[in-house]
């Protein structure tokens, strides 16, 4: 890398762009966009943000549907040295109130259908401008962008300057803002392009959402850093994926994508004739899915491991054995270790906490210096909270999550957040939310509920209470009423007992 060039993520991408007329992406409806379009449209976005009075380091909060224009918004924001803050499109207004209050953005860009409710939130919080961007590219934001110059000198940024602010809920119920620097993303994406063999000849089938690390940083980053192209799908649909697979060479997906493909009779080995690589992540991949996929297609799924705070840390090899049940080996530049309860070393094949260190690891938590200090060891390793082991060949297996999170369809569900909503019902004494295996979603949330004396509430009323204040994917798939919850001698609910009890139901 040219050290004299600004360490701006967009500038790094730009140095890998092919000829301007080279294809960047093709949409589901057959529209083509080139690298010249990315250069010009992102410049217009950067100019417009500056014209609106935003400065380097200002946050731009975004809750919009996946579109080409949303891609230009992302690229223009980081190009201008501002901080991109993506939010799940399923989040309810009450959830957004916290994110916006904590991030304190200068601008919120949202779908026009959400504008009225979110304008009230912005007015209550103060000093947040609001503009709209719809899935078809319409809205006040792009109307302003279109009249701006298509030339912009990318803002120079230092290694610690923040490119993105991404929130991940904590087990206490309070979400944590994760600060990802330009350098974090450059380091991580560069390693992935090399390890996964991306070249300008590749075409990525992009069916992931772009409010998530997987679809936004990993998928788009690998394309832009290699000068390759994308088939840009609005979301995952089996029919659309089968239509575009013959024109693609790489696919990234959560395990649910692959289980749904395997459930389709139209998914056959010839569907994958042009493919060189299928990558799975964001949730554990069941060994039976790994085996069935290989038997059906002749392709071995490449499973990897990452998290919002670190991007990708570990990957099964592109060339070499990909082992079912493992997430592979540490990426170049990433140091991994397993530690016991007192941070002492553990033997090979012994379970302990996975700790990582490298240029990919985030700068820290937004406005939470004490939490940042707590989650790093004195010698600079990040405590992932995931339980893992390393075998004799160095392959790493994730065996549990000590932080109690469950992953449903590739999306994080934090039990405490859901439990607080259920426990607020007058008829409920207490609840425990657990994840149980699910063939489609990987894990499904199940709420175990104890009613107060004389309390009466239905399953649907409990689900409605969660649905009213939280995103749809957080609503428990099942609600089970019990007389009491199992506890240890310290009085703590034994969720491992509950998981074992209900995993087979």
Q: How would you sum up this structure, described in words?
A:
- There is one protein chain.
- With 505 residues, this protein is an alpha/beta fold.
- Among the domains are: 1-8 and 34-157, Rossmann fold, CATH 3.40.50; 196-300, Rossmann fold (3-Layer(aba) Sandwich); 406-502, ANL, C-terminal domain (GMP Synthetase, Chain A, domain 3).
- It has 15 helices and 25 strands.
- The chain has helices at residues 9-14, 35-51, 68-79, 93-103, 115-125, 140-145, 182-195, 213-226, 238-244, 255-262, 287-297, 369-374, 415-423, 459-469, 495-502, and strands spanning 23-27, 32-34, 59-63, 83-86, 107-110, 129-132, 162-169, 175-181, 203-206, 229-232, 250-253, 277-280, 302-307, 311-315, 329-330, 335-339, 352-357, 364-365, 382-390, 396-401, 406-408, 411-413, 428-438, 442-451, 478-482.
- The strands form six sheets. The protein has a nine-stranded mixed sheet. Strands 4-3-5-6 form a four-stranded parallel sheet, sandwiched between helices.
- Strand 23 and strand 24 form a beta hairpin.
- The longest helix has 17 residues, at 35-51.
- The N and C termini lie far apart (54 Å).
- The model is unreliable at 1-5 (pLDDT under 50).
């Amino acid at each position: 890398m040219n050290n004299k060039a600004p360490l701006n993520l967009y500038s790094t991408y730009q140095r890998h762009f092919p000829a301007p007329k080279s294809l960047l992406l093709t949409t589901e409806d057959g529209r083509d966009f080139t690298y010249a379009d990315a250069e010009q449209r992102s410049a217009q976005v950067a100019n417009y943000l500056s014209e609106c009075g935003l400065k380097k380091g200002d946050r731009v909060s975004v809750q919009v549907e996946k579109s080409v224009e949303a891609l230009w918004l992302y690229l223009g924001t980081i190009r201008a040295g501002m901080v991109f803050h993506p939010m799940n499109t399923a989040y309810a207004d009450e959830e957004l109130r916290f994110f916006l209050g904590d991030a304190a953005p200068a601008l919120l860009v949202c779908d026009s259908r959400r504008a009225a409710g979110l304008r009230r939130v912005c007015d209550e919080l103060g000093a947040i401008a609001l503009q709209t961007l719809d899935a078809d590219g319409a809205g006040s934001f792009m109307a302003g962008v279109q009249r701006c110059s298509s030339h912009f000198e990318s803002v120079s940024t230092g290694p610690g300057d923040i490119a993105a602010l991404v929130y991940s809920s904590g087990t206490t119920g309070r979400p944590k803002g994760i600060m990802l620097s330009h350098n974090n993303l450059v380091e991580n994406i560069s390693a992935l392009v090399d390890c996964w063999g991306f070249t300008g000849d590749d075409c990525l089938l992009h069916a992931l959402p772009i409010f998530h690390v997987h679809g936004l940083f990993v998928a788009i980053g690998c394309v832009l850093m290699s000068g390759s192209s994308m088939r840009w799908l609005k979301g995952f649909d089996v029919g659309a994926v089968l239509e575009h697979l013959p024109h693609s060479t790489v696919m990234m997906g959560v395990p649910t994508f692959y289980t749904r493909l395997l459930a389709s009779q139209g998914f056959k080995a010839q569907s994958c004739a042009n493919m060189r690589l299928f990558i799975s992540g964001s949730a554990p991949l069941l060994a039976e899915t790994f085996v069935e996929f290989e038997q059906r297609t002749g392709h071995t799924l490449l499973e990897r491991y990452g998290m919002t705070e670190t991007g990708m840390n570990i990957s099964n090899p592109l060339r070499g054995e990909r082992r079912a049940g493992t997430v592979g080996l540490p990426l170049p530049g990433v140091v991994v270790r397993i530690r016991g309860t007192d941070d002492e070393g553990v033997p090979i094949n012994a379970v302990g906490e996975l700790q990582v260190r490298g240029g990919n690891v985030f700068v820290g938590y937004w406005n939470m210096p004490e939490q940042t200090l707590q989650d790093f060891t004195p010698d600079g390793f990040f405590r992932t909270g995931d339980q893992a082991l390393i075998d004799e060949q160095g392959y790493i297996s994730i065996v549990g999550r000590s932080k109690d999170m469950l992953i449903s369809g590739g999306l994080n569900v934090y039990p405490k957040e859901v439990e607080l909503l259920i426990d607020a019902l007058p008829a409920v004494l207490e609840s425990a939310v657990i994840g149980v295996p699910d063939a489609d979603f990987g894990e499904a949330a199940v709420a175990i509920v104890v009613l107060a004396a004389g309390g009466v509430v239905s399953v649907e009323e409990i689900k409605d209470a969660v649905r009213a204040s939280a995103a749809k994917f957080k609503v428990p798939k099942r609600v089970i009423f019990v007389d009491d919850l199992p506890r240890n001698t310290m009085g703590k609910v034994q969720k491992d007992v509950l998981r074992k009890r209900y995993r087979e139901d």
